[in-house]
């Protein structure tokens, strides 16, 4: 198979974008983007009772947050139903499929008897080779004629060659008795019509590949490259579920994880490139390949996720970080930053980014720029503002008023003051933190002074010194 690589992500819109689905989308996106190919999106909305527009929106929002852009229009599987049926009818006309008039009751009775006799419950329709003249005027399904001997080999880029004996394959139904196409047929027709060259999906679909190949082969279509990826487990080795914590992609946005960190962590979840843990999007696109995917289920590890996210926050562009924090506040239902606070937060990024693993942690450190005067110190900070500390601030503030407003200038003034008073700088740091941020844990006092500027710094110190 040559030409443009085309991958696809095909979620069912019955709920949010599951983190496992997000990783599947990411793998498809990385594989296509790294090869100058196309990444397509299909919504598998044939289950009309469970498919909702809200779920489709949730999936699209999750993908948008993760930055997984797709090419072309979104394909609706439901809207292609006529095309799916057309393929089934073509196979029927060519003798590669047949009308089966067996009733549900007959099939159930056959299986019950087979179980009782300890035989295979694989149903073989008596209508497979029946003469059309013997067909009754009754409802029927259309079944494909599966090969009954030999074997089918699924050549899988992750699982290796998987061999299935053809006598284990039933004559799969293509059209139900009401004329509607089944999911297995719809998937193949859509993938073929969309030009999909590589099907990268969860290994819970591995057995489906053998049945879907029946349609590819009967139609004389190229079979795509298969890559069935292991599921994601929780830390306890069981399939990831709500009991392990968040399972929806957007929940992670609301928890304050940066999208770049999430992409990095999800890419590393079940795929590896040497010992590399931290990497950029550009590196991931260049490195990602199917042989790097492991066969065993990957375990979700929140500590690793936080560590990776912290590294991404630390190296992120300040303006981009500010934009993502705004989106985080919006998702949390909190009010946006005004222009003044945005500028202050951007200016403070250099002293906030290190060691913040989430946007929530970063905003706690940013309290000194987000708070308004007069500051109300928290319990720990308030303990640093006793009468002695206030006296120190009262004496120090006029000297800072005339300092050169640079790190060197501010350090020189405070160090000289500490020396003259024969106190250690640490004795002054607590009251200064309390005065400037109302918190006991903050960036360095000099960083806070530089970001706040002379006027705001002096005003806050005066507020704290005057309180009784």
UniProtKB/TrEMBL annotation:
Keywords of this entry: Aminoacyl-tRNA synthetase, ATP-binding, Cytoplasm, Ligase, Nucleotide-binding, Protein biosynthesis
**Where is the motif ('HIGH' region)?**
11-21
Q: Which Pfam families match?
A: Anticodon_2, tRNA-synt_1c
The record's catalysed reaction(s) read: tRNA(Glu) + L-glutamate + ATP = L-glutamyl-tRNA(Glu) + AMP + diphosphate
Tell me yes or no: is Protein biosynthesis among this UniProt entry's keywords: yes
GO annotation, biological process: glutamyl-tRNA aminoacylation
Task: List locations, semicolon-separated.
Answer: Cytoplasm
Provide GO CC annotations from the record.
Answer: cytosol
> Annotated Gene Ontology MF terms?
ATP binding; glutamate-tRNA ligase activity; tRNA binding; zinc ion binding
Q: Which residues form the Aminoacyl-tRNA synthetase class I anticodon-binding domain?
A: 324-464
Domain Glutamyl/glutaminyl-tRNA synthetase class Ib catalytic positions? 5-306
- Gene3D superfamilies documented for this protein: 1.10.10.350, HUPs
- Residues annotated as binding ATP are 242
Q: Give the residue ranges of motif 'KMSKS' region.
A: 239-243
The record's EC number reads 6.1.1.17
**Class of the enzyme per the UniProt entry, highest EC level:** ligase
Q: Which family does it belong to?
A: Belongs to the class-I aminoacyl-tRNA synthetase family. Glutamate--tRNA ligase type 1 subfamily.
Q: How does it assemble?
A: Monomer.
Q: Briefly state the protein's biological role.
A: Catalyzes the attachment of glutamate to tRNA(Glu) in a two-step reaction: glutamate is first activated by ATP to form Glu-AMP and then transferred to the acceptor end of tRNA(Glu).
- Its protein name is Glutamate--tRNA ligase
The gene for this chain is: gltX_2
């Amino acid at each position: 198979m040559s030409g443009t690589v085309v991958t696809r992500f095909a979620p069912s819109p019955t709920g949010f974008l599951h983190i496992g689905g997000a990783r599947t989308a990411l793998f498809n996106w990385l594989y296509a983007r790294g090869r100058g190919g196309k990444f397509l999106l299909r919504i598998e909305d044939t289950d009309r009772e469970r498919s909702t527009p809200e779920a489709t929106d949730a999936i699209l929002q999750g993908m948008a947050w993760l930055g997984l852009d797709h090419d072309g229009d979104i394909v609706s599987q439901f809207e292609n139903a006529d095309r799916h049926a057309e393929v089934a009818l073509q196979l029927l006309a060519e003798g590669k499929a047949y009308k089966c008039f067996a009733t549900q009751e007959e099939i159930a009775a056959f299986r019950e008897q087979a179980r009782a006799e300890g035989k295979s419950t694989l149903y073989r329709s008596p209508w497979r080779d029946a003469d059309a003249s013997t067909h009754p005027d009754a409802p029927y399904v259309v079944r494909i004629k599966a090969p009954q001997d030999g074997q089918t080999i699924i050549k899988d880029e992750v699982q290796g060659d998987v061999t299935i004996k053809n006598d284990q394959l039933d004559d799969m139904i293509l059209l139900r008795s009401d004329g509607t196409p089944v999911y297995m047929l719809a998937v193949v027709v859509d993938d073929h019509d969309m030009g999909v060259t590589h099907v990268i999906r969860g290994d819970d679909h591995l057995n489906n590949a053998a049945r879907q190949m029946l349609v590819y082969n009967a139609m004389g279509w190229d079979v795509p490259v298969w890559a069935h990826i292991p599921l994601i487990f929780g830390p306890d080795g069981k399939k990831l579920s709500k009991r392990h914590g968040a399972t929806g992609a957007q929940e992670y946005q609301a928890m304050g994880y940066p999208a770049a960190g999430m992409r990095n962590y999800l890419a590393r979840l079940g795929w590896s490139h040497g010992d590399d843990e931290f990497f950029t999007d550009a590196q991931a696109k260049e490195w990602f390949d199917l042989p790097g995917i492991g066969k065993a289920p990957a375990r979700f590890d929140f500590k690793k996720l936080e560590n990776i996210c912290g590294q991404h926050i630390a190296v992120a562009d300040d303006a981009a970080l500010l934009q993502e924090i705004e989106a985080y506040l919006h998702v949390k239902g909190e009010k946006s930053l005004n222009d003044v606070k945005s500028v202050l937060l951007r200016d403070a990024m250099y002293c906030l980014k290190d060691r913040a693993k989430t946007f929530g942690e970063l905003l706690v450190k940013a309290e000194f720029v987000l708070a308004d005067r007069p500051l109300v110190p928290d319990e720990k900070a308030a303990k640093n503002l006793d009468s002695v500390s206030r006296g120190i601030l009262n004496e120090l503030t006029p000297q800072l008023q005339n300092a050169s407003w640079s790190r060197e200038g501010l350090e020189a003034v405070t160090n000289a003051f500490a020396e003259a008073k024969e106190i250690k700088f640490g004795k002054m740091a607590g009251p200064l933190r309390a005065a400037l941020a109302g918190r006991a844990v903050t960036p360095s006092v000099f960083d806070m002074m530089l970001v706040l500027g002379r006027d705001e710094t002096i005003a806050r110190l005066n507020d704290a010194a005057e309180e009784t």
